[in-house]
Design a protein that fits this description.
mainly alpha, 0% strand, globular
């Protein structure tokens, strides 16, 4: 499995995340632009929880790079990101306010990163990504 396959995992899990946003956060009769902003804001909840910055912050810091922050994530970060997407979807369903979700997701991201850094299974994924 290459790195791109692992990146696809987070895209697949993102469907779980966006379905929760659609079902629980998007009010009726809202403009398409407002809906897009809501999705982007929720994506940034995950970005800040894991990477410590929003997508815009990353773009501002990396003007010569194409893509987005997630395209430059390592395998461990992508595994944690996939986990955070599912967790955030459940927190959204529980109607937990965004600031509280961000705090919980950040603690979870730190804990999972600490657990997975140097993990032999992650190392196998990394080798497959080369």
């Amino acid at each position: 499995m290459g790195w791109d396959v692992k990146r696809q995992l987070t895209k697949i899990n993102y469907r779980i995340h966006t379905d929760a946003i659609q079902a629980h956060l998007i009010p009726p009769h809202i403009s398409k632009q407002s809906i897009n902003i809501l999705y982007a804001t929720e994506a940034d909840v995950l970005n800040v929880a894991l990477f410590g910055k929003t997508a815009k912050d990353w773009r501002d810091e990396n003007p010569k790079k194409s893509g987005n922050i997630r395209d430059y994530a390592d395998v461990t970060q992508l595994v944690v990101l996939a986990n955070l997407e599912g967790i955030n979807a459940e927190l959204i369903k529980q109607e937990i306010p965004q600031p509280e979700r961000l705090s919980q997701l950040n603690r979870i991201a730190i804990s999972q990163m600490q657990s997975l850094v140097g993990n032999s299974s992650i190392k196998k994924l990394e080798v497959g990504a080369e």
